[in-house]
Amino acid sequence: MTDSSHHVLDVRLVHRIHAGLNLDVGLAIDREIGIVFGPSGAGKTTLLRLIAGLARPDSGHVRLDGEPLFDASNRIHRPLRRRRIGMIFQDDRLFPHLSVAANVRFGLKGWPREQADARLAEVVALCGVEHLMGRSTESLSGGERQRVGLARALAPRPRLLLCDEPVSALDSDSRQAMVRRLMDVQRTLAIPILYVTHSVAEAVALGSRLFLMERGRIIASGPPLDVLSSARRAGDGTIPIEGVLNVFPARVLDHPPGQPGSRIRLDNGPELIVGALDPPAGSRLLVQVRADDILLARHPVEGLSARNQLAGVVERVVPRGPEAEAVIRTGGLAWIVSLVEPAVAQLGLAPGAAVHLIIKARSCHVLPADGSRSPGTNPS
Description:
Elements: E1 9-18, E2 21-29, E3 33-37, H1 44-52, E4 59-64, E5 67-71, E6 76-77, E7 85-89, H2 100-105, H3 113-127, H4 142-154, E8 160-164, H5 172-189, E9 193-197, H6 200-206, E10 209-214, E11 217-222, H7 224-234, E12 246-254, E13 262-266, E14 271-274, E15 276-277, E16 284-289, E17 295-297, E18 308-320, E19 323-330, E20 333-340, H8 341-347, E21 354-359, E22 365-368, E23 377-378
Helix pairs in contact: 3-4, 4-5
């Protein structure tokens, strides 16, 4: 059981989901983003519903800021409307008969008009939807709808935000933009967020703590990279092997004449030189780069055979015994880089530090956009 006596959110729940699956979970988070990660059918959504008060657990407790929202032993079960919990889902669940402004203002019913107006202006700016306020919800894109749903959930100042795979139906650009928006929201409001996903990229980019869930139980918890790396090494099939690689969608730019390679551009990211490709310019593909195939330097390095040197910024460093992983952001992409622990100090790696990722063309493994067989690369 998790020692959660001083955490903002403290959950210990037991609940029968169906004849073949019982939920038995203990978790706790502070003012951070906690990731609930696992395969479909693990009980992730049920866990969020129980925390929110949309269903009543069989036993256990849910405490928020020390206040019991559910406590079976003391017969406490506060309804959702009294829990001050915001929720966003894969389905944005906006009210189609209301405008964007009315959707966001919905959670402010009962507020004095002046306070409601001030809060509305504050939350729409935070979520980047000021320019959408006069629009009909039916005219919005998927990413816009999710930002409006986020604004509506945050409007009444919730003490906790629950997110149930809110970006899984979005395209790549909208998905990454929403992930960055949630990170900004958490930093600005210092609100605890519990985020359900089965995406390794989202887990690493967003979370400070990850709870690996399988068949109703949390089987591991800790920093996302630690948990995912351990699951990979265990070889238990919980995490797909490609999930711990850097995997990015991209498109072919060209095949420079006289050059032993092709140029591609990562979606929301930089150009890369890879081995010579067969597909023509404009073709969609996936690029995989192992975390331990990337070198780091604080400045550009001359005289290297490596074809790619990408400027980036350190987002976080996760020590792991004699090794470490760093998360490096280049534009809209977050890269995982594995390195030995002494290199962290030697390079002065810390959040905000400017670095260069050094990647050989032969370290970039290219697949078709559907992830099937190789599209014909000749590593160089």
